[in-house]
């Protein structure tokens, strides 16, 4: 450990440091976080750290206070047998906490600096992992001291190790008694920090339901880590038999170890516990359901096997044959293993499936008919089943069997229902989730893609959609079915006015646009304009058009990338749905302008003043 000069005075930290607002802290720590892609079994590491700290703090308290408490008051958990602790990372954190200057008037912000340095080194870990890794590093240090203290002073090897650790006080019980109160207070802070981090771990799980929970985690992680940093300094002072100590009172108040003397905001422990309770109640979760959901989310993030994720989703208990196979005339119950190495299209719906959606399934089924590496599985989604619904399901299978190879049997677990609603945004309308043979989600809902592009978008991936949009302009997919002449107009690169809004405005626009369409000058210059009105009175056309726009918008949005030019054009047009007047002007399938209809109407009304400026064969 770094040497520390003895002094009779205690270091008093800068009080303003403890009055930082949450926003000020967030500003400091956001810059240290890059991503959450570093893999770590946080739960196993937390179990090990908790077991060490519970045993070691209890043993030291018994020795110093003369108490006889036993470890049986805690229920010790066991980490996974396959868990391999990240020792190098723990040592790196230990270096940051131990090899800095000790408490002094000149270095009162060292805890802040060390905390930010640790956060930078853990930039690719999740927020709960950052806190648990720091706690585990401290537990390793504290546990080493505990082990050294248990061995007889006559063991010269141990004495040498103690000296290297700069902890000669471990040899002298009387010296430890001298620092009794400081040690007892330190253990209280350690236990409170452990409680905060356990709450942080639970909140991180709940963030799978609502990412807003993370807003309450990050600040608590900061205070937990900075408290551990200060505790490490205090631990060193005690075992090095130094008179100067690290003042922990302000950290204790933050963590609710000692009640504050004045009215202050909630401590981190109070707030974190309260948020854990609130979020559990808000989502109506039992602990076992929370854990099952978390495991399912993790499974879809890490699994490389399609049958593994389907088992977790459809039949996590592995107690039944979960699929009905209608590929033969006789109904068979089969295992999920029949889908091993297959790409799976999960059709998720309630029991009321429209003819339009059946038509989509028919198209898909025809497309993949002879491609053995693609299979459709229907998952009937019901959170609670009545007898009538079960009867309806049994009857529905006969209608679905021609279009789906397999049908998942009912009784999805609550965690699976929540996963489908939260992760895949199921709200009653059918989903078609595309999974590759490794169980990875290729498309959260291909129904939108198919409604726009048809089975040409097979295999319903982002790459397939992008290829189609390179071959054809997006507007072509939207308008091609409105009039049978449109494909020819597009091929001939004619000008097309696509417009809609209130009935009176449409009539007025049609009148003015028709005058321009039939103008002699345009005919002489070989300029041809066609008119396509999207009228609410023509309900089928109106609904088909806006459904296509909405589906294209959602299909583009689900890739969670920055909106490109095409995405912006689609979004802009979609925003016109409830407008009183809108217009899109194209040449063939190339969109020239998409604006408020009133602007274009004004231009048409002034056509006689600017038509002489028309170019030959073009506007």
From TrEMBL:
Pfam name, any one: SEO_C
InterPro entries, A to Z: SEO_C (IPR027944), SEO_N (IPR027942), SEOA (IPR039299)
Gene Ontology BP, a term: phloem development
Domain Sieve element occlusion C-terminal: 465-537, 542-619
Sieve element occlusion N-terminal domain: residues covered: 21-256
Origin: domain of life: Eukaryota
Protein's UniProt name: Sieve element occlusion N-terminal domain-containing protein
The organism of origin for this protein: Fagus sylvatica (Beechnut)
């Amino acid at each position: 450990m770094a040497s520390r000069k003895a002094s009779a005075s205690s270091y008093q930290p800068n009080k303003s440091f403890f009055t930082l607002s949450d926003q000020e802290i967030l500003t400091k720590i956001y810059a240290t976080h890059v991503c959450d892609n570093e893999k770590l079994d946080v739960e196993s590491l937390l179990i090990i750290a908790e077991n060490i700290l519970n045993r070691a703090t209890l043993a030291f308290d018994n020795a110093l206070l003369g108490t006889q408490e036993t470890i049986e008051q805690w229920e010790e958990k066991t980490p996974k047998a396959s868990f391999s602790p990240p020792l190098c990372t723990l040592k790196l954190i230990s270096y940051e906490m131990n090899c800095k200057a000790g408490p002094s008037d000149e270095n009162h912000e060292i805890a802040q600096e060390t905390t930010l340095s640790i956060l930078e080194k853990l930039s690719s870990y999740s927020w709960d992992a950052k806190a648990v890794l720091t706690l585990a590093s401290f537990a390793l240090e504290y546990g080493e001291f505990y082990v050294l203290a248990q061995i007889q002073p006559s063991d010269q090897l141990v004495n040498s190790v103690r000296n290297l650790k700069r902890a000669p006080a471990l040899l002298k019980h009387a010296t430890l008694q001298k620092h009794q109160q400081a040690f007892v207070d330190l253990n209280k802070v350690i236990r409170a920090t452990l409680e905060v981090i356990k709450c942080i771990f639970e909140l991180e799980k709940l963030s799978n339901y609502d990412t807003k929970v993370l807003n309450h985690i990050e600040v608590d992680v900061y205070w937990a880590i900075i408290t551990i940093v200060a505790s490490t300094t205090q631990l060193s002072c005690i075992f090095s038999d130094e008179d100067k100590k690290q003042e922990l009172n302000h950290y204790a108040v933050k963590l609710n170890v000692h009640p504050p003397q004045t009215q202050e905001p909630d401590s981190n422990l109070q707030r974190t516990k309260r948020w854990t309770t609130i979020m559990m109640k808000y989502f109506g979760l039992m602990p076992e359901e929370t854990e099952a959901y978390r495991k399912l989310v993790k499974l879809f993030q890490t699994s490389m096997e399609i049958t593994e994720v389907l088992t977790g989703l459809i039949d996590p208990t592995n107690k039944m044959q979960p699929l009905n196979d209608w590929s033969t005339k006789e109904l068979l119950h089969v295992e999920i293993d029949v889908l091993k190495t297959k790409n799976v299209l999960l059709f998720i719906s309630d029991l009321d499936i429209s003819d339009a959606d059946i038509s989509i399934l028919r198209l898909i089924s025809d497309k993949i008919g002879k491609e053995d590496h693609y299979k459709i599985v229907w998952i009937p989604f019901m959170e609670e089943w009545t007898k009538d619904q079960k009867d309806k399901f049994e009857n529905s299978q006969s209608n679905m069997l021609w279009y789906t190879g397999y049908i998942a049997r009912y009784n999805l677990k609550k965690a699976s229902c929540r996963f489908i609603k939260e992760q895949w945004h199921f709200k009653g309308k059918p989903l078609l989730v595309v999974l590759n043979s490794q169980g990875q989600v290729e498309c959260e809902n291909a129904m939108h893609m198919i409604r726009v592009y048809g089975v040409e978008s097979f295999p319903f991936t982002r790459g397939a959609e992008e290829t189609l949009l390179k071959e054809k302009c997006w507007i072509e997919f939207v308008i091609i079915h409105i009039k049978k002449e449109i494909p020819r107009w597009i091929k001939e690169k004619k000008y097309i006015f696509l417009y809609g809004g209130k009935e009176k405005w449409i009539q007025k626009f049609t009148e003015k646009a028709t005058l321009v369409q039939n103008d002699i000058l345009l005919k002489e210059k070989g300029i041809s304009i066609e008119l396509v009105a999207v009228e609410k009175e023509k309900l089928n056309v109106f609904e088909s058009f806006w459904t296509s726009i909405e589906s294209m918008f959602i299909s583009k949005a689900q890739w969670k990338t920055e909106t490109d030019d095409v995405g912006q054009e689609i979004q802009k047009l979609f925003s016109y749905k409830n407008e009183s007047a809108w217009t899109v002007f194209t040449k063939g399938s190339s969109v020239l302008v998409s604006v408020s209809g009133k602007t274009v109407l004004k231009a048409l009304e002034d056509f006689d003043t600017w038509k002489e400026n028309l170019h030959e064969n073009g506007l």
